[in-house]
Specification:
Radius of gyration: 16 Å
Structural class: alpha/beta
Bound molecules: 6-phosphogluconic acid
Helix content: 25-40%
Strand order of the largest sheet: 1-10-9-6-2-3-5
Mean pLDDT: 96
Low-confidence stretches: none
Length: 228
Amino acid sequence: MKLEICPTAVAAAERAAHRIAGCLGEAIAVRGRGTVAFSGGHTPADMLPVLAVAPLNWAAVDIFQVDERIVGVDDERRNLRALRAAFGNPGPAAARIHGMPVDDGPHERAAEDYEESLNTIAGTPATLDVVHLGLGVDGHTASLFPGDAALKATADVAVSGPYDGLERMTLTIDVLNRARMRVWLVTGAAKRAIVRRLVDDDPALVAHRIRRDHSILVLDRDAAPGTA
Ligand code: 6PG
């Protein structure tokens, strides 16, 4: 896992955007198209708009979600909102966005449907070019939480939680590890302790199950372990 420490959260977001754009540009050059999946939460807010103006052939890009909260489409907690704001039509980067079908029930069936859409675009088993990952203070990533049954799922998409009072739909460990590249973006002093444990490869963390090769951990100085 390659660490890239930036002076500020905004600089880290810009660096992560640059890394993801590089992965997509290479994929388009080699295979004619690129696939990416984004995690939700607050951290990507500074990254997505920067990535959306990267000089890429966005018509050749398919955007997926790493995870989504199972709430109404207008609920501000929906991760899809930030993706649509950055990449939706009309906009600088009118890419194809494949939102997780959390409005469709039953959710287990909807998860199977999403996996089928992944397979249609990214092959079987689904192999994404790059996935963006965040890190929770408890060491979770995606919506894969300590002790959750989704950690044992054999499918690439599962329903998880409740966590923070919400059920979620999430990509699972295998599809995240199958991706050609992983770009983590973690910022803020509150994450420093858990980043230390991730860097030290603490086996107790859910994030420990994510492969470390072909992975970049982009941090700001506040989240970087060993910085005053
Ligand atoms: C989600 C995310 C989640 C996130 C981490 C960090 O839907 O909540 O996918 O896994 O990446 O919890 O969240 P913050 O960026 O808000 O700290």
